[in-house]
Design a protein that fits this description.
The protein has 229 residues and is an alpha/beta fold. The chain contains seven helices and eight strands; from the N terminus they run αββββαβαβαβαβαα. InterPro entries: Cell_Envelope_Assoc, DUF218.
């Protein structure tokens, strides 16, 4: 049996339609990324000029032997710096704890406390399985209305766009990262993740786990006010 591949159109009109279809497909593929850039464009800041905000949100980025990966450590370093400089009062760490032997939030908490952030100023979200879930839970479960989001540059625009869609007024701080294989993989992954992000923003699905409202952020902010008082 002889396999025959698809035939290219032979007429000029057919070729023109093929080119138009390919161009239309490219435009549609780029629309989600364009949306992310438009939403996050004026919301990106550096650690030095981000507005003072009560809450910082740090997204999980993997563990190595139970400790934050280098990429996650850079995010946590930025959060600790913002806390020490008085730009944020509480850090919400959101990540994956779907297995007993994998606990991103507790590893993030431990790292922050070793770098000068009091345990009482850290709140853990154990069901931040993806960016959309983390944003929705920050709003609906932890009552966060405004936050500084911290992630790598290749991810921060999507984080800002999704948290804005979830109702959290957001400023994004993109931390530096070595341009290694992980960085290139992350950048390429964002092209495909943009499509899912656009669908999440439009259809607003519930997170994998929602549950009752938790007062952790509110209590941490109250402790911060007592300290300042």
């Amino acid at each position: 049996m002889t396999f025959r591949g698809p035939r290219l159109p032979r007429t000029r009109r057919g070729q023109r339609r093929l080119v138009q279809a390919v161009m239309a497909g490219c435009v549609l593929a780029l629309l989600p990324a364009t949306w992310m850039y438009a939403v996050a464009g004026d919301r990106l800041r550096t650690a030095a000029d981000v507005p003072r905000t009560d809450v910082a949100v740090v997204f999980g980025a993997g563990l190595w032997d139970g400790e934050p990966s280098p990429y996650l450590a850079h995010r946590l370093d930025a959060a600790a710096e913002l806390y020490r400089e008085g730009r944020v009062e509480v850090v919400l760490v959101t990540g994956d704890n779907s297995r007993e032997d994998y606990d991103e939030p507790d590893a993030m908490r431990g790292y922050l406390t070793r770098h000068g952030v009091p345990d009482g100023r850290i709140v853990s979200d154990y069901a931040g399985f993806d960016t959309w879930d983390s944003c929705v839970r920050a709003k609906k479960i932890f009552g966060v209305d405004e936050a500084v989001l911290i992630s790598q540059g290749f991810h921060i625009r999507r984080a800002v766009a999704l948290c804005e869609a979830a109702g959290v007024t957001s400023y994004g701080v993109g931390v530096d990262a070595v341009h290694d294989a992980t960085w290139y993989y992350g950048g390429a992954r964002e092209i495909f993740a943009a499509g899912k992000a656009a669908l999440d923003a439009v259809f607003r699905p519930d997170p994998q786990f929602l549950g009752p409202r938790e007062p952790g952020v509110e209590r941490a902010l109250a402790r911060a006010e007592e300290t300042l008082g």
